[in-house]
Amino acid sequence: MSGSDVPSHNLFVYGSILEPAAAAVILDRPADTVPALLHGYHKYKLKGRPYPCIVPFESGKVNGKVITGVSDAELNKFDVIEGNEYERVTVEVVRMDNSEKMKVETYVWVNKDDPSMYGEWDYEEWRMIHADKFVEMFREVLEWNKNPNGKTREDIVKSLKKKMSSSDQSSSHNVFVYGSFQEPAVVGLILECTPVIVSAQLHGFHRYRLKGRLHPCIAPLETGVIDGKVLTGLTDAQLENLDMIEGDEYMRKTVEVLLTDTSDNMQVEAFIWANKDDPDMYGEWDFEEWKRLHMEKFIEASEKFIEWKKNPDGRSREEFAKFVEEDPPFGGKKMATSEQSPSYNVFVYGSFQEPAVVSLILEFTPVIVSAQLHGFHLYRLKGRLHPCIAPFESGLVNGKVLTGLTEAQLKNLDMIQGAEYVRKTVEVVLTETSEKMEVEALIWANKDDPDMYGEWDFEEWKRLHMDKFIEASKKFIEWKKNPDGKTREEFEKFVHEDPPVAVETGGNERTGANSILKGVCFLGRYNRSRERTMILLKERFQEPPVVNLILECDPVTISAQLQGYHLYRLKGRLHPCISPSENGLINGKILTGLTDAQLENLDMIEGDEYVRKTVEVVLTETSEKMQVETFVWANKDDPHLYGEWDFEEWKKVHMEKFIEASKKFIEWKKNPDGRSREEFVKFVEEDLTAA
């Protein structure tokens, strides 16, 4: 290596050269890099260009990498790539790996007041769309630098700009898409390639839902704006594929869109709904909802299309077009119109709002529409995880309508819900359109049931219980396929009794922590003959992973308040204690239906510094009072009590260690290894409450 090639420069990069393949093309070797942060600059997008620039900005910071050990010759190559719109300057960066400051060189935009600068450049977006082309362009620039072949720098720059702003010349169509073709996995299958995709907006149109269909349409609307994508550089054959998929209910037209990144206008083609006055158009189609509920089936349909393209099996284009129209979920035929189509619309408000549950029970994913039911209230049920609805004059229930169910699917719902519900016809208001719709709904038979209270929370249910409900739904499907001699009545009994579907927190033949309490309540109710209820207020046992490990079950929990006590910190310990305080108030949870064995587990964990007492709490949902047990600090004058313990802080900082300690407790229970209860209590005190 000559003297001039001795590595002597460190170069901070922040844009396209972050891409390892791009840096390697320039250096002719893999780059040695360290992550770094540059303060006092901002990384802007440039209108009409895919690459970024940086300029001074007092409160700004730019994430990037430092390429270390760059030789003079290599640095010259970077100068050639960057051109005269950038100037190379020396700046100071902070290394992200060791926080050390480092003097480096970087390229700063010459015109710091350039009106083309806007927003913030996104490396990941650039990488997905442009990385491969940049690698090729860098290679061409460096080849030109070695052998100009009569071309000036201006010639090569012009050529590069043309390449950056256009696709392969063999491709000639740019198409604006706004529905399922925004998803790369779908469009990649249909086109058999992944085109360069650019975000764009189409003004003067609205994206509608279509009754009975999963796909959207667009139609003119003066004040409308549609966010979508432009598929660039499509061939005639690829455009023909899109024509075939869309069918004759759409017309392909030329429209003008606004590119999101650059604010440039662009002439593109788009598929417009032919019947702009179609009464089936309503609301606004939701791409994220479609992805969550239907994308997998659309991908399967796309794969069928590709199979047909490779092996038509004697079917003409017209016959395949008919297949596309008729085969769910890809085609355009309305659901719920033919004799073989589903015919029931059902309003759901509990676990069946969750697509993963309903699709298992029904063995397909219906079209789901948001709706409101007036004149009813969504109640909790004491001792159960599922809700009920009952008439309530000023009530309002938010839920979903499952559309187009068959009679067999409706019977499945009836079987799951059982005789405590009655199916009635009610009128709901569709959230998207404010239209009224006659649907069926399952109403709680006993409208005066004293077990109804408060308001059921769908998000809480999802967080705490959804996984177990999905398991229960799978068991239902297994039984449907192989009843194994069980009648419908026997299966209903199974649903009531078998974990994780039901909770039985009592009975005359309790077996402790390994009893049926291990489940969650799906249809069952409490048998309170030997039920214990206790509260553990504002402590680690509010966190489900901890309590589930200690109790070896997932108990039903109820929010409550304990008045006349304060939640203290303990010097040198991670856990809290409670002690009487005249004006005190503690928010916590009630763990319901614990067995003697489970309560003994808690006694063992808490140790003799706590005393278990009966106290009265107020239920948060109902304001009812309830007698429960709780652990109170034995020494109410303990000088180690101070301040107020913070549950959220404990979760963030210490919860994982408590979960590990809980696992050790379970291991000890299964295999004491000669240790007495007293020895284990010492272990718990040392391991859980260490400072």
TrEMBL record:
Gene3D superfamilies xref list: 6.10.250.210, Gamma-glutamyl cyclotransferase-like (3.10.490.10)
Pfam families, per the entry: GGACT (PF06094)
CDD domains membership: GGCT_like
Coiled-coil blocks: none
The Gamma-glutamylcyclotransferase AIG2-like domain, residue ranges: 11-122, 175-286, 346-457, 543-646
GO molecular function: acyltransferase activity
InterPro entries (UniProt xref): AIG2-like, AIG2-like_dom, GGCT-like, GGCT-like_sf
UniProt keywords, alphabetically: Acyltransferase, Transferase
Keyword Lipid biosynthesis assigned: no
Role, per record: Putative gamma-glutamylcyclotransferase.
Family: Belongs to the gamma-glutamylcyclotransferase family.
Name under which the protein is recorded: Putative gamma-glutamylcyclotransferase
Source organism of this protein record: Brassica oleracea
